[in-house]
């Protein structure tokens, strides 16, 4: 069971309050609230979108995320923030695994996350989350607007491209999703070699057409690019 | 005539003793004890998983809370017992896990992996009911 547990550090929770969104949901038993945690550098759209909404409706298989639990006050009934002493347990390691304070969605389906009271071996409350496989990746700009394809760039021009994950029912999926970006040799564009998330900087380096290959979890998309104009003298290697 | 119906000195004591034995026998022979138990107030589950007092079929990863209730019987009827003496155990923690709810008389069970397990409700350590649970992976 230890591998399925996540210690909820009060420091992480408190550090997050100022920068993260306020996505939370009341537990099934009504004893407290589960809050979706976001780090300031997160590219999870649940963290960059509107605050004060519920937990994400569905998380992508292959994504990771963090959740904390806050019990209700016995006196006022309101949620008490920053309370320690709870561990989040995933009901089944088939569906979710934990590494430190991070939960990773492993397979499609519903899974319960339970707030266990450390030392008492009792459960305070629980919720169910849905994990869905990414069926489609849609390219967008840094503002989330769909990109017209092929994407047009000039030599030396760069832009941040983002891919948005959707399930088979076209519902948006959330979570910190690892992605790999690759521009084949001879492509008129280069991509930031350090890009590992849903966003990457792409730069036009030469005239012509080509694609950028993006893999996020089990989903793949080829984004076509057109670069008009003479190629850069240095091939764009200097950014 | 009247003497014929009298029991004489000491006869009344023996009659009382017989009566006590007659009344005590049912107690000694099992006429009191656990009557039945139920799983009450089962929380809704987000898919087709079901849990009742008779059986349960859960998909892997699903959790449900419930309040176990136990009644005992004696010559004067059935009586619900206090929740402090009620416990819930699982026969296989690798398939089905169960834990009490903090500061509450409910319990939470969750399906860990596919298989079969039995949920046992006890009253002061005595078995009140057994609920067979089947855990399967969702389609």
Radius of gyration of chain A: 21 Å
Order of helices and strands of chain B: HHEEEEEEEEEE
Work out the helix count of chain B: 2
Ends of chain A: how far apart?
A: 48 Å
- In terms of structural class, how would the helical and strand content of chain B be classed? alpha+beta
Structural class label of chain A: mainly beta
Oligomer: heterodimer
Helix proportion range of chain B: 10-25%
What share of the residues of chain B does DSSP label as strand, in percent? over 45%
Flag low-confidence runs of chain B. 1-10
The chain pair with the largest interface is: A-B, 25 and 26 residues
Q: What is the N-to-C succession of helices and strands of chain A?
A: EHEEHEEEEEEEEEEEEEEE
Distance between the termini of chain B: 86 Å
Supply the number of helical segments of chain A. 2
In order across it, which strands form the biggest sheet of chain A? 1-6-9-10-4
Name the shape of chain B in a single word: elongated
Strand content of chain A: 35-45%
Number of strands of chain B: 10
Which radius of gyration of chain B do the C-alpha atoms yield?
Answer: 23 Å
Quick tags:
heterodimer; A: 239 residues; mainly beta; five-stranded mixed sheet; five-stranded antiparallel sheet; 18 strands; 5% helix; disordered N terminus; B: 139 residues; alpha+beta; 47% strand
Question: In short, what is this structure?
Answer:
Chain A has 239 residues and is mainly beta. Chain A has helices at residues 10-17, 45-48, and strands at residues 5-7, 24-26, 32-37, 59-60, 64-71, 86-90, 96-99, 102-105, 109-117, 122-132, 136-140, 151-153, 158-166, 179-182, 189-191, 199-204, 208-216, 219-227.
Question: What does this molecule look like?
Answer:
The complex is a heterodimer of chains A (239) and B (139). Chain A has 239 residues and is mainly beta. Chain A has two helices and 18 strands. Chain A has helices at 10-17, 45-48; strands at 5-7, 24-26, 32-37, 59-60, 64-71, 86-90, 96-99, 102-105, 109-117, 122-132, 136-140, 151-153, 158-166, 179-182, 189-191, 199-204, 208-216, 219-227. In chain A, strand 2 and strand 3 (32-37) form a beta hairpin. The radius of gyration of chain A is 21 Å and the shape is elongated. Residues 1-22 of chain A have low confidence and may be disordered. Chain B contains two helices and ten strands, in the order ααββββββββββ. In chain B, strands 1, 4, 5, 7 and 8 form a five-stranded antiparallel beta sheet that branches. The longest helix of chain B has 18 residues, at 11-28. Chain B is elongated. Residues 1-10 of chain B have low confidence and may be disordered. Chains A and B meet through strand 9 and strand 10 of A and strand 7 and strand 8 of B.
